[in-house]
Write a structure and sequence with these properties.
GO terms for molecular function: acyltransferase activity, transferring groups other than amino-acyl groups; thiosulfate-cyanide sulfurtransferase activity. With about 290 residues, this protein is α+β, with helices and mostly antiparallel strands. The chain contains 9 helices and 13 strands.
Length: about 290
């Protein structure tokens, strides 16, 4: 009887539907199958601030794809998974085609693993950069810089942080920034009475993630990262940084090893930062 039930489940039709809260446990199982460190809370947060699709077979989640719209022009995509038993049947293409249709003609950014490059290139994505994943237990003591222009953010700083994020990313992301600030510890650089950079650290995966990190120079980005690391001694920390800014070796010197990388890709036009503001570290590889 058990074998008959298993056969019936495998032959059941696969439906494509909108991601709902009830799908979180199944999505978590998929990410665990991929050895991704997401917690139940991480999936809940991602779904709350974005939208998604699932492939469901007999009530079982066998595929996910989420995206986050930033204004009418841009979106990011991520958390794209198809269970191993369903791969090779065209389900990944079905899922991703649904995502592209749902993003409604926006320019779409994503960070691809080596395995996903072929699919995304077929869909018109081109590579533009590399994201380096650094992580590990923070065993080396880190001391915050004595400079006084890094301080704790207040509620009254939120609008300025959102505006700075928009200049750094070239995309309007006020809702995402507000949601991240709500669950994380936010520090800012203040110069001449204005916000000149910010960083958020929050619980994620095996410990904490530091990101976004937005600043006007790599030196300022390091100051912001050090300020967060100074309170995370002996915690597990992850930071995803753009390779072009040269922070990788410095993070290695702090004991945060490079454990992987992703290829930054875009379908359509890549957003352009405004002025000196740049994004140095991501909230995660899906949100951008």
């Amino acid at each position: 009887m058990a074998l008959e039930y298993e056969r019936d489940t495998v032959s059941a039709p696969i439906e494509l539907m909108n991601f709902e809260t009830r799908h979180v446990p199944g999505a978590l199982r998929l990410s665990q199958e991929m050895a991704w460190p997401y917690r139940h809370e991480d999936w809940e947060f991602a779904a709350m601030v974005g939208q998604g699709l699932v492939l469901e077979r007999a009530g079982e989640v066998i595929g996910t794809a989420l995206w986050w719209n930033y204004g009418q022009t841009y979106a990011t995509a991520g958390m794209i998974i198809v269970t191993a038993s369903a791969q090779g049947g065209g389900y990944g293409s079905r899922l991703f085609n649904g995502l592209l249709e749902a993003t409604d003609g926006r320019d779409v950014l994503l960070n691809s693993t080596e395995e996903g490059l072929t699919l995304y290139k077929r869909r018109g994505f081109t590579a533009w950069g590399t994201v380096l994943q650094h992580q590990g237990p923070l065993t080396l003591p880190v001391t915050q810089s004595a400079r006084t222009d890094v301080r704790q953010a207040t509620v009254s700083d939120l609008a300025a942080i959102q505006a700075f994020d928009g200049r750094a990313t070239g995309m309007p992301r006020p809702s995402m920034v507000a949601a991240l600030a709500e669950v994380g510890n936010v520090l800012v650089i203040e110069r001449w009475g204005r916000v000149a950079g910010y960083v958020i650290a929050r619980r994620f995966g095996r410990g904490y993630v530091i990101g976004p990190v937005a600043a006007e120079s790599a030196q300022d980005a390091r100051l912001l990262i050090l300020a967060q690391l100074s309170s995370l001694h002996r915690q597990f920390v992850r930071i995803d940084v753009y390779a072009e800014h040269g922070l990788g070796d410095w993070l290695e010197s702090l004991g945060l090893e490079r454990v992987g990388y992703a290829t930054a890709m875009v379908k359509g036009r890549r957003p352009v930062s405004d002025g000196a503001a740049r994004m140095y570290a991501l909230a995660n590889q899906s949100f951008g």
